[in-house]
Each structure stands twice: as C-alpha cells, then as structure tokens.
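Justification of computing resources. Each target in the renewal requires a structure prediction run like the one illustrated here; the chain below, 275 residues long, is used simply to show the kind of job we budget for.
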Amino acid sequence: MKKKWKQWTIIIFLAIFSSFSQTVAGTVTAAESEGRNNQQNNMETLDRLSQEIVTLVEQEQLAHAKGKLEQLGELFTHIGTERRISIEALELATQTIVQGKKALADVTPDKKEAILRAKQIRILVDALSHPNQPIWKSYHSTYSQQVGEMMNQAGRSRQEGLRKSLQLNYQLYSTLKPAIALNQTPSTIQMMDSIYQFINQQAHGQDVDWEATQNSLQQLQEVTGNLFLGKEQNTLALYMNSNSPIAMISMISLILFTALSYVAWRMYRGTRFQM
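Resulting structure tokens:
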C-alpha cells in the first residue's frame, strides 16, 4: 500500500509539473509574441521614416526631413533586435544618424551631402528591417565594376586613374559600410579598411608598389565577393543564439519530465514484481 502511495505521488507530481511548465511557457510565449509585434511595428516605422526622409530631402524640404530624422533617431535608440550586432556596428549606425542630423542642421545645407546622408540612413535602416534581402546587396554589380576598374588602372600602372577610380569606389564603400557592418564581423570590416588604407597610400604616394597594389586589389575583390554573395547565417542558429526563454523552458521541462517518467516507470515495475 505504501509503494502504491509513492507511485501515485510521483504521477500527481508529474501532472502538476507538466501543467506548470505549460502555463509558464504559455505566459512567456504571449509576452514574446507581444514583444515581437512591438518590434515589428517599430521596424516598419523606422523603414517608413527612412523612405520619407529621402523623399523630403530630394524635394528640398529639409526642415521637414530634419523632423522626421529626429523621430527616427529617437526610435532607433529604443529598437530591439534578435540579431547579434557588434558594438562597432552599433557605433557606425549611430554615427550615420548623427552625421545625417548635422548635414540637415547646417545653416546653408549642401544638397548633395544631405541626399548622400539620407540615402545612407535609408540603406542602414533597410539592412535592419530586411536582413535577408538588404538594399546594399543590390550594389554588387556597381561595386564589382568599380573594383575591376581599379585593377585595370593598377595593371597599366596609371596612378592618376587609380586615384580617381579609388575615390569613386571608396565613396560607395563608405555609404554602404554601416549597413554592411550589421551583417559582418568587425574583423571583416577592419580588414577592408586596412586594404583601402594601403591602396590609398599607394595611389597618393610617390613610389608605387604596383605588384603589392594589384595583390591588395585582388584581395579586395575576393572579400567583397564574399560580402555580397556570402551565405546568410542559419535561421535555427539565430533562434538558438537568441537565448529564447521558450527554448530554455522547453529543454529543461523535457529533461526533467523524461527523468521523472523513467523513475516512475522503474518504481511501477518494482511494485508489480513485488505484488
């Protein structure tokens, strides 16, 4: 009789534990769902604001664009994301928004500079809201052509041509860099910066090492090819890396439930044989 009582105690405990786990998981799921909805709404608002800013700047409604940028900047500081973003990428993103504000706050704003900053902010926000198909990847063809032109100039030992093609390509890289940094590791961005720094030194130096310059350009071509065509991180890996409470609760519940079920089964078998 005593062993039967123990058996029923374990069974009741398992039922209570299972019910508790489902309740906790349901509560966390509801909270996570609400959080995801808020995050999605914020992302959509950021996306809309960034598009409006570009349109307003192109229409030379700079005061109105400045107000929209203030809203975007305020919302950006409260935005949340499940993606892992490096401190360096966040710093670049913040600098991009600050530079945009400065461009619009000038007493006599430079229209070209204002448009450039507005588009840079648009590309940055799009990289956050559309990580799988960001706008910056659509520049692959243009980027490749520019790098190819630099390689062509270096192959012919034309320093002036290299300077001009480098200036054009580096302007595009600087525009895309904050958005690219959201998808790449800091070491990749640092490597690209180092390559550009070396090429720039050679393009403006007196004694050009053309062989080293061509090697650096070849390396730049390979790195940028990986940037634009590289594989996205596995979705399951992103979910697991997010330290989701649901994943943790489910895993712990499964382990405990399996262990307790095994104990109950062993005790039940022992009771049967003893009876």
